[in-house]
Amino acid sequence: MAYSDKVLDHYENPRNVGSLDKNDPQVGTGMVGAPACGDVMKLMIKVNDDGIIEDAKFKTYGCGSAIASSSLVTEWLKGRTIEEAYAIKNSEIAEELALPPVKIHCSVLAEDAIKAAVADIKAKQAAKDNA
Amino acid sequence: MLQNHFQLFSLPKQFDIDVKALESNYRKIQSASHPDRFVNASASEKLQSMQLATSANEAYQVLKKPARRAQYLLELNGVNAIADTNTAMPVEFLMQQMEWRERMEDAKAARDIATLETLNAELHKDARSIQTELAHLFDRQNDLSKATAETRKLIFIDKVCADILHAIEQIE
Q1: Using CA atoms, how far apart are residues B108 and B102, in angstroms rounded to an integer?
Q2: Which of residues 96-155 of B touch A (CB under 8 A)?
Q3: Domains located in chain B, CATH noted
Q4: Per-residue pLDDT averaged across B104-117, rounded?
Q5: In the 8-state DSSP scheme, what is residue B80?
Q6: Which of A100, A107, B3, B129 could be disulfide-bonded to A93 (CB atoms 3.0-4.6 Å)?
């Protein structure tokens, strides 16, 4: 299958691969998986006191489109608020990377990883506020 | 009415099936619908026998593999176990997946077939315990929600196993 240039670029030079300290109260982790193709995606975001994402890292096992989708969102997330991050739609990711219909689910995975990471940081903040 | 895959092989609609019965019934249908038997038959009989052979082939492929069989049982109950919109999995299971994938990548880079085989054996053990659980969930408890979660795990494990075998082939 032919990948778009943008997918190839992210696949060959993935941005922000790695992890952050998951025990850091400012770090939220989102993990999601798609059984159909066996993809696993881990996305970590570091959020400052103003609710702005300062850093984002990912680790993905999957096809080129899944890696490109997660690499792209780590670039998009930096500098955004967690509310803005939560509003990112898989269709924006798919459009930016020109994903073919059979690879749309890779962008769904990336969107769900963001939502899971935001939910995790919110849960951590709520736990801190209640402490 | 169209027969489902289980009916085609006269098997009860359940997860824990008699694999020997599946195989012998499959062979019976294959031989009964073999083109050699229909050389002098009418066009419609030829077509019918060909369709039967095709359905039997497809049904056999689905039923013989536990993960596909579980997925099919869920399908018959209106559940799509691998829907694109369902990406939530237990975090511990996903962490385990990452760890397996990392070990596989490392062993692959080191061309270490022994480690790949060990990993493959570990995964098969996990797959077998999920299959035992699935027989319980489908056939005794009829708990489709838990069965869906276990089926999704089994599909994941099968995928890693396939990738391990592929890696071993590439090294050899």
Answers
A1: 10
A2: 97-98, 101, 152-153, 155
A3: 5-64 (1.10.287.110), 91-171 (1.20.1280.20)
A4: 95
A5: -
A6: A107
Q: Tell me A2's DSSP state.
A: P
Task: Choose the catalytic residue: A56, A106, A110, A117.
Answer: A106
What does the pLDDT look like over B44-55, one tens digit per residue? 999 999 999 999
Q: What is the ipTM of this complex?
A: 0.81
Name which of B95, B102, B105, B100 is nearest B119 in CA terms: B100
In 3D, which of A56, A69, A81, A54 has the Cα closest to residue A107? A69
pLDDT in tens, B55-110: 999 999 999 999 999 999 999 999 999 988 888 889 899 999 999 999 999 999 99
Cα–Cα distance for residue pair A88/A112, rounded to 1 Å: 10
Q: Which residues of A touch B (CB under 8 A)?
A: 31-38, 40, 42, 59, 61, 104-105, 108-109, 112-113, 116
